[in-house]
Amino acid sequence: MTKAKTKKKGKSGHKPPGKQHLFTRESWIGLAIIGVIGFIAFSPILQADFLNYDDELYITENAALTGFNLPGLFSGYIGNQYSPIAMTIMALEVKLFGLDAGSLKLISILMHLFNVLLVFVFIKKLIRRDDIALLTSALFAVHTLQVESVAWLTASMKISTYSLFSLASLVTYLTFRETKKQRAYLLSVLFFVLAGLCKEQAVVLPLLLILIDYFQQRKWWKKEALVEKIPFFIVAFLIGMATMRVAGEMRGSGDPLPYTMIDRMVFACMALFSYALKQILPIHLSTYYLYPPVGEIPGYYYLTPFFVLGILGLLYYMWKNDLRLYFFGIAFFLINIVLTLFSQIFSVRDVIMADRYVYLSSIGFILCIIYAVAQYANRHSWPNKALYMGFGLYALVLSGMTWQRTHIWHDTISMFTDAIEFQNDKGYQGTTPSLGLPYSNRGLAKKRLGDLEGALTDYNAAIAANPGYPTAYLNRGNLYFVQNKPDLAIQDQNKAIQLDPGSYLAYANRGAALASSGKYQEAIQDFDKALDMQPNFLDGLRNRALTYYTIGNNQAALQDLERYLRIAPNDADVQAFRQEVMSKMN
Q: Is the dihedral of CA 284, 286, 292, 297 positive or negative?
């Protein structure tokens, strides 16, 4: 009588797919504790404001979103991105809770915690260990690198949703692998489509499915496995085409970065090195990681390509030695940030790195760290309590750092002050052109708070850092207009138009300054140009109507006011203005 042969396991202790109980009483308790600690860690953002850093473009001043205009959300790009599902979800939130930053950020925290639950389910289905799944989801929940993706609504709108649908796609694919039910397979494809319509980073998901097949010791290159992936690759191709189109528009929207291709490749290597380092020790973070000045690239940047080569060598070693879990974790980490690294090389991004780019990819890195420590503890017969206490202490330290970091994202001034101080502390001798945006946006926030002198100082600093940055001149021109200095306002708007001839705001602002100087016909010409570029620009319509009214052309003023009210029918001030014009005509 011979013994039955047992199926060989991979060296990482993986078991072949089969039915399992996802949740136990202990895992529910653990997830509840993680949820409470995670909520507390991020709770300061409930008191935070909208940020003058894309929140206006994508949310507060996005008429299609605030008006729940679904055809408008699906009809084109906003801010050089196509993310209609993400914006539809945000539009529903705004419809339910209004433009209340606290309510929207509460939903952001809850979505993050739901992603934590999906991380647990994904890891549990993948490796069948409650302890590793709980520890991975715990560190994912409270890690300080996640703050940007949760605290900043524009980032949360896209990052949280794309991650949610990507994880749902991975989970349902694992369910399909376990049960062979077509419903699970179709759900996986559907969730991938939704993820791609939230953020272009989802395009890499088919590679993650192949990675899962490899981890589960499936011959992923065989016909059956590859045929399963065809719908995913078709969706990925369509997302990729849209991404390339947007990338082309972004490259053409401003001056190219003044760095060589070698410099850009070094920056990509530096970003990868920093992401890995900050996964372990999240210090020296910034809300806006800027490039060093030309000619002042630190020498250690040029050592980071050796780190990348080391990572690739490590992957090869893991593959050759069948260390499947480690290979899976590192490859998962790399695959999910590969797009941002390539865009770094081709100068699409205006920052060298961003914490939000590693929101989803961090799962792979965290999984590797936890598994490595657990294996080491097992070989040295450490008690389980010591292991859990060690990771628990680490998680609590991360929670404290996260709670502290959330305060940086409280408002526009604190957010951009953090970026400015981070860059200035580097001790560079030359100016950093990318500082133009932080200074200019902080100046606009100060202006809205009534700190006109502080705003002027920031605008001047923005222009000193980047004399070719049109928005700085546009904003300073607006400030001069408020200060009743029309000549200086016109001068700055002229410069803004020279640098960006397609800026309808600069034409409209110059028109307002010309009108205040009594140059009404020139002002109307500028308003005409602005409205040709942006026909539904409400400030342009209102100011042109006021100019027409001032010179006695009441019929033209009434036409502009009627056009304004067709777009914004509930504007009481413009309704009253229309009544005044009509009474004059009568």
A: positive
